[in-house]
Amino acid sequence: MSLINFIKLHHVQICIPVGFENDARAFYTGILGMEEISKPKNIEGVWYRAGNSELHLGIEPEIYPTKRFPAFEVEGLDEIRKRLTDKGLTVKEELPIPGYRRISILDPWKNKLELMERI
Fold this sequence. Notes:
alpha/beta; 2,3-Dihydroxybiphenyl 1,2-Dioxygenase, domain 1; four-stranded mixed β-sheet; globular
């Protein structure tokens, strides 16, 4: 038996600067179409539903480059790519990994978001 019985990934947290919650809503809800969900009032940031997991945007006083990022499995990658570029986003082709095609975008704070489709 393993030490921990993992059930599922509940959420991933990435960060935005202080005071940019409305800008985050414009990007994550307005452009990406994610559903904002409620969070405890004592926690800063904005939370979203992403499929059967959650994406939490925490507040950090200083943002710095990182290789950490969430990867979302999606359907219709070609149409998603077109819609993102139509909205002015730069879409990067990622190296394929077995069984998946991948692209990525950056949010306004340079957080990488990977979108991958099973092939």
